[in-house]
Amino acid sequence: xxxxxxxxxxxxxxxxxxxxxxxxxxxxxxxxxxxxxxxxxxxxxxxxxxxxxxxxxxxxxxxxxxxxxxxxxxxxxxxxxxxxxxxxxxxxx
Amino acid sequence: xxxxxxxxxxxxxxxxxxxxxxxxxxxxxxxxxxxxxxxxxxxxxxxxxxxxxxxxxxxxxxxxxxxxxxxxxxxxxxxxxxxxxxxxxxxxxxxxxxxxxxxxxxxxxxxxxxxxxxxxxxxxxxxxxxxxxxxxxxxxxxxxxxxxxxxxxxxxxxxxxxxxxxxxxxxxxxxxxxxxxxxxxx
Lengths: 93, 186
Known about the structure:
heterodimer, A: mainly alpha, 3 helices, 60% helix, 0% strand, elongated, B: 71% helix
């Protein structure tokens, strides 16, 4: 099964193998917050789960950025960005 | 996986870029609304994180190109990324003809009343799910629409790492600002 796609020499200079895809998907999987382990072990089922969790994770991260921007807009309004207080913040991070 | 050293320098670079952008809006005077400030903070943060990639990833290039479509953002982008970004028109390839073909092929197979075993049906459904979820992912990752499978996964990995840096640093800034305000108001 693995060598099937790599038989075509024409297209691109890098041959896309199933191993490459599996490796990338597992790297992606490692980034995701812990997900419930599905009992099925077929490749399609886990790729599906990884995709679903990835989309949810990205949406959550984007939402966090929005929420933090909101919170910061309220906090920073009391601090001039060029003031000594801002310098203190910068040194705390 | 990025080493801890790389990750912390990424955070430093993001912070540096972000503050550069915020300083442009240093005149957060009484007249700017909370909404305007929030947009400025978020925009600076987005350009800042994209700039850490130095145009080496497609999502970051797409994000910056998208932002530079708005004339009013150009100064901010130049200040943070240090370079002038020409606006690249999106290709907008029409892919629906391919989609329709694929859909009719699956429908044809089912309609042909061949003995379709449950496992075949299951795998067909799984394939469809993967396809539709991939479409969703393409919309979530900036510039994802034009990417092939492999690039999409690589770009997604980089994008997620970058988003995490963004959330981490912005979160710490919020905590620090909060603590500072509490301590000075005592």
